[in-house]
Amino acid sequence: MHIILLGPPGAGKGTQASFLQREYGLAKLSTGDILRAAVASGSALGVQLKSVMDSGALVQDDLIIDIIRERITHDDCAKGFILDGFPRTIAQAEALDVMLHHAGTTLHHVIELAVDDALLIDRISGRFSCASCGEGYHDHFKPTLVDGVCDVCGSHEFSRRADDKAETVARRLEAYHEQTSPLLPYYRALNMLRTVDGMASMDEVTRAIKTLLSA
Ligand code: AMP
Predict the structure, then answer these.
(1) Nearest CA among 115, 91, 93, 92 for reference residue 169
(2) CA distances (Å), 45 to each of 40, 80, 130, in order?
(3) How confident is the model at residue 119 (pLDDT cuts 50, 70, 90)?
(4) 127 catalytically annotated
(5) Residues 161, 171, 188, 210: which is the catalytic one?
(6) Cα–Cα distance between 198 and 17 in angstroms, integer?
(7) pLDDT band at 14 (very low <50, low <70, confident <90, very high)
(8) Which residues pair with 3 in a beta bridge?
(9) Residue whose CB lies within 8 A of the most ligand 1 atoms, among 30, 31, 60, for a mutation test
(10) Does ligand 1 come within 6 angstroms of the Cβ of 35?
(11) Cα separation of 132 and 155, whole Å?
(12) Is the predicted pLDDT of residue 107 greater than 90, yes or no?
């Protein structure tokens, strides 16, 4: 099963992708996570990527397309994958169509998590994650069960993303509206787009996605 989760930054794509990964045994391919790992490696490419990402702009298409083209050949993608944060431009969507076609397969579901901009700012500014296992949390919407301790792995170390600052979030939302939202009519025209209310609770969103996948 090949699934795209679409939606603005802070819509909950990462959280829902993690759920789908556990529930259906699919690989979660988050281009943001892959790029942040490249930044953390301290390579020359990582340094370049960091300045683009910290500005809130999108990284160039050819680089991201090459990353995904290679990543989908890994063994963990054999049962399928969930794309979280890719495609983000029409050029990326077209390249994905071609790579799946060459692999003799296709896309199965494109699910949009729809959320108003006003709510996104609140959601993003409270985000943090476990520095050890990567589990995502939120100051108000999903705090740790025990203060300062990761629910999943027990670590006491947490981190916040450099691009979750208010100024950068505004630029990321602008990039979404200008460059990524044209994907909605693109997939609607292919009769693939299904929309879920991303402002509902996390569990309700999960249920809505499961219903779409079983239809
Ligand atoms: P995310 O974690 O998905 O919010 O991505 C964080 C940042 O990584 C974005 O603001 C972009 O700078 C970059 N990025 C992630 N995915 C893509 C993509 N598909 N195309 C271009 N840039 C991307």
Answers:
(1) 115
(2) 11, 29, 25
(3) confident
(4) yes
(5) 161
(6) 13
(7) very high
(8) 82, 109
(9) 31
(10) yes
(11) 6
(12) yes
